[in-house]
Design a protein that fits this description.
Strand content: 15-25%
Number of strands: 7
Shape: globular
Helix content: 25-40%
Radius of gyration: 16 Å
Strand order of the largest sheet: 3-2-1-4-5-7-6
Distance between the termini: 44 Å
Low-confidence stretches: none
CATH class: Alpha Beta
CATH superfamily: Vaccinia Virus protein VP39
Number of domains: 1
Oligomer: single chain
Bound molecules: S-adenosylmethionine
Mean pLDDT: 96
Length: 210
Amino acid sequence: MSAVLDRLFTRWYPLLMSISERAGQADVRTAQLSRAVGRTLEVGAGSGLSLAHYGDDVTELVLVEPDADFRRSLRRTVDSCTGRAWPVTVVDADVHRLPFDDASFDTVTASFTFCSVGDPDVGIEELHRVLRPGGRFLFHEHVRGHGLRARVQDLVAPVQAALAGGCRPNRDFAARLRDSRFRVDELVPGRMPRALPTVSPVVHGTASRR
Ligand SMILES: C[S@@+](CC[C@H](N)C(=O)[O-])C[C@H]1O[C@@H](n2cnc3c(N)ncnc32)[C@H](O)[C@@H]1O
């Protein structure tokens, strides 16, 4: 049953997200990802909604995606997104154990990925390991809200996780990042336009490896 629900998620997620993207979320992706420089790693790339938002300062993009269905649509997005000066590789890997050398990327990115990662602390530590000293982590995540919203997020978390590829809407990603070895340089709060109430608020920003 969970395999069927996971497969369905890979179909409905890009369609639902496209509503928020058109309503302004795409501008946040541009603000986040246009700062990527050099050899860049994106984890949990999904169907590739972020791909069009990288700028010309990227020299190579490596897209990690562990789900086979998402990887298929990701490859289609990569093939249809022409005109880039830099190469793109799609890799089947897991953020808990990245198959990359220490300090081998100039930039690492994640968008709406850490809600679904089994152990976010391990994933954040892996990103820190593969990033070079001085390199930047560009993040964009939906996070735990406050008051009534947080209580609703707690209540629906098991159902949302089952229906939405393991997404836990009540995670405090910003706190996990602050507790990690990254230095948080910028954290911009916001709301996801035209989205389910459980996937707001959102944060985007930058953290760096000291
Ligand atoms: C909600 S989707 C977001 C997709 C895409 N980043 C976007 O912005 O639309 C969550 C993504 O995280 C990926 N993911 C979940 N657990 C992961 C893990 N352990 N390692 C890497 N990616 C993971 C999922 O396969 C999925 O692609």
